[in-house]
């Protein structure tokens, strides 16, 4: 009966036998119970309450077993040539095939009632590869014949059968309440779809160019295995989750070897081959705590894991000789130490400055805010607002804990006096890179404590090797992001844990590096991309894949690519902030700025008859250098009131390369005979010179009270430098604790 299982099970059996020869079993730290007898060929277990069912193919019998965890009684149900059992409440359903004539099985769907021990054949002429699923009185399955496969449902209450799909390419359904999910390859690539029985509406959950398979559902969460790498013809799947309420997709694993996910309440389980020397192990992810734990590792391979409450059941090959058994254990609670984390908004501003603190800590049961880091806590609220009434440099300390341990995180806040003058500021300069090979354009970038830039240090002979490097200001550690095989990296941006760039190893592709997982992902595949920018889950770039230049966007959360522009003019200087994408193009004969709002799907022309270069966006402000006259002023456009202002400069062509954070602009200026970095405050309309040495500084970037640039040293040495802005005097007093919403006023 083994040949009626899914096609990959035959290959998997051979692989398992190979692993069993090479790898000996190891003792599990969990209290495991073996449910099967000696010399079994058990597979595809399912569990509900105290009852576990599975199919046993010893001697091609295909017998369904029902095991009661309370009584330890193993009953062989009235079945033969049966497979793929499913259970809900007191009902067991399976596929049973008889009458093999050399071409096909005569297959039917059988329901078994546990209290009465009666079996009922509910439908016939189904397919030998059908995989039924049951929820209360509803049973779903797929039937695949002559290259056509659709999803069907049978209602045990009304004794009616209906066809759910018409795509002819639907497989492997799962059901929860009134929602059915399945894999569908109607568009040549397998994606996940959902049908709502209450609304009679179908929805496409994934829209990927690579296979998405094996979906499962519980409540509002759908999980599946999906490949994002697209390498050769081999699947490299990870587990993904889609929340129906929030329409958000979350990548659960990054092992590229995760299969057959199941979900019950807050726990997702799957089998994973990341440990190459131990076959496939079972892992679990807790959605609420966002924590992963390895559950089973015994040196053999585990398959078809399933879960009910805290009870895990799986197929196990540890006992050798080509036999497989069913095991069960109680899943341990994932216990992790507390991790302190929070955001500050704003972190720079004028006194009195209300600051919103938002706690993103994990695994904590208590918290304590010390807004002055003086050892005296001011609040235990989760997301407090605190008002700093006096100017100064402040450090806030959040301490979180559980019953055993604590963890703390610090963050700095700079509060300026209302009447700020230059001599009140301390400009502290530091050298970030030391290779002397920092490359121009666009480099460096900064987000929070992380600085990234492109570096030429690894070149040798005539081979160019440009790599991405990162420096963490908190740990004072430098990390090489790109691997030696990258060879040519340029174009760079960072937001949160994500770094994006253009990789030139084989054409021009957009790549992304996730700092939290240390994983690199290729985003574009046509080899004709450049100028990436990132904000949150969205990555944008310019691409001429069709012989015409357009802006494209990739959403990391749902893995969907979208073309943004439709005009044939070449977009330049693209940038993104929130729902807004900006760029310059010359469709009307002048270089003007255009903006696309992702929320409204509306494009707006910002400037008219301008000569725009290097536009940037932050919040409601768009800045650029304008070439419409000789002086090449920096211009600022406020989206909220549609007003444009000009930052005056008296030196012809002196300013360039503007960047913006809040109310502050930074730019290079050659008024002193060399390029220096200047900062302009839009609120106070004051300008401050940041650098004063006689070498050239260019390519500035700003985040909070930190300004970066590339410094031109002697003999062609180029390094990254940073200036931190603070006040000469730091007053510790701060009063007026509040719970009001803060503004975003920053200098």
Description:
The chain is an all-beta fold. Among the domains are: 2-330, TolB, C-terminal domain (Neuraminidase, 6 Propeller), CATH 2.120.10; 342-420, Immunoglobulins (Immunoglobulin-like, Sandwich); 453-465 and 480-564, Neuraminidase (6 Propeller). The strands form 16 sheets. Strands 1-28-27-26 form a 4-stranded antiparallel sheet, with no helix packed on it. It has a 4-stranded antiparallel sheet with strand order 2-3-4-5, with no helix packed on it. A 4-stranded antiparallel sheet has the order 6-7-8-9, with no helix packed on it. The chain is elongated and about 95 Å long.
Short recap of the structure:
The protein has 747 residues and is mainly beta.
Note the topology:
Layout: H1 8-22, E1 32-34, E2 42-48, E3 51-56, E4 63-68, E5 73-76, E6 82-88, E7 91-98, E8 106-113, E9 118-126, E10 133-135, E11 138-145, E12 148-155, E13 160-163, E14 170-176, E15 179-184, E16 191-196, E17 201-204, E18 212-218, E19 221-227, E20 237-243, E21 248-251, E22 258-264, E23 267-272, E24 281-286, E25 291-296, E26 302-308, E27 311-316, E28 325-330, E29 342-345, E30 348-350, E31 353-359, E32 366-370, E33 385-388, E34 392-401, E35 406-416, E36 425-431, E37 445-447, E38 450-455, E39 467-472, E40 477-480, E41 489-495, E42 498-503, E43 509-514, E44 519-522, E45 529-535, E46 538-543, E47 550-555, E48 560-563, E49 572-577, E50 580-585, E51 592-597, E52 602-605, E53 612-618, E54 621-626, E55 634-638, E56 643-647, E57 655-661, E58 664-669, E59 676-681, E60 686-689, E61 697-703, E62 706-712, E63 718-727, E64 737-738
Parallel strand pairs: 30-35
Antiparallel strand pairs: 1-28, 2-3, 3-4, 4-5, 6-7, 7-8, 8-9, 10-11, 11-12, 12-13, 14-15, 15-16, 16-17, 18-19, 19-20, 20-21, 22-23, 23-24, 24-25, 26-27, 27-28, 29-31, 31-33, 32-34, 33-64, 34-35, 36-63, 37-38, 38-39, 39-40, 41-42, 42-43, 43-44, 45-46, 46-47, 47-48, 49-50, 50-51, 51-52, 53-54, ...
